[in-house]
Every structure is written in structure tokens, then in C-alpha cells.
Amino acid sequence: MSNPAIARNLPLTLRETVCESDGEAVRRLVAATGVFSAEEITVAGALVEEAVPPRPNPEGYRFIFLEREGHFLGYVCYARTPLTSHSHDLYWLAVDPACQGQGHARLLMEETFRRVVALGGKYLFAETSGMPQYKPARGFYKAAGYEEAAVIPDFYKPGDAKHTYRRTLSANRTENDN
Question: Largest Cα–Cα distance in the chain?
Fold first, then answer.
């Protein structure tokens, strides 16, 4: 996990090239949040490992990794929604708990918006659980300009609804337009 002693004033770096070590770094990060299940942690790491060059990435998963001085702080995974012309899905967004509250998730989200628009995307969809530990994620999506598009009761398991959020994107929209 990243070193919380790293000074906040050092520059942040965004990269999209997937490295061999990123799968394990993502597993550690996702596990450290204390929110995701063991199965989710495994899937998060596997998606990254499947995208390490020169492996083909048939699902078109794209990643943005956030680092400071070589320390892994967070990441996002997104892709065009299969069989759509202009919709994209946000699959993963996670930030090191030692760095939460510093705007890193917002930075990753805004960068994702820019990149999806550059790919011709009009909508970005995010989904999350209705369980109490996911309440901060639901609040984050709303604060990031998403609207709740659907709630499907008992989707993941009895008592655990799927909340789907949609953000409309345009080349001229910024975070201040929320």
C-alpha cells in the first residue's frame, strides 16, 4: 500500500499503461478499502492482469492509475458498454484509504469523463451495492453529477439492491456544471 507519510505537495501522476505489478497493487488497494468481498478483490486484480501488454484486451477495459512518487494511490477501470454506440461503464474506482478525502477520487473521475468524451462517449454508467458500506460510494456518484437511473432490489443477494447511476457527458461539460 502507499506510504501515508508521502507529502501531499508532491506531484500526482496519471498513467494508463498497465504494468506487470499492477494486478497485485490493485488487489492490495481494493482489499485495503475494507468494502469489497474476496471475490471482488480477485476480479479487480484479474482484469488488470489480463490487460498487461502484449496480452490482447478483448473487452476493451481501460485503466487510469494514480501515483505519487511511485506509490500507488488509486485507479479506475472503464470501458465502452458492449453493443452500444456511446455508453461506457465505470467498473472500478478505488483510492488508498490513507489518501481518501484529498480529491483523488474526483481527479480520477474527471479524467475518466474527459477520456470517455474523447472516445465519443455520451453517458457513463456506474453501479454499486445498496448495502450500508456502499453509502459513501452512492453519495460520491451523486456529488460527481450522476443521477440515479435504476434500483434493482435483491440483485446481488436478498436485501442487496443494485443502484445504477448515469452521468451525461459532453465535450463542454466540466465538474463545475454539476
Answer: 45
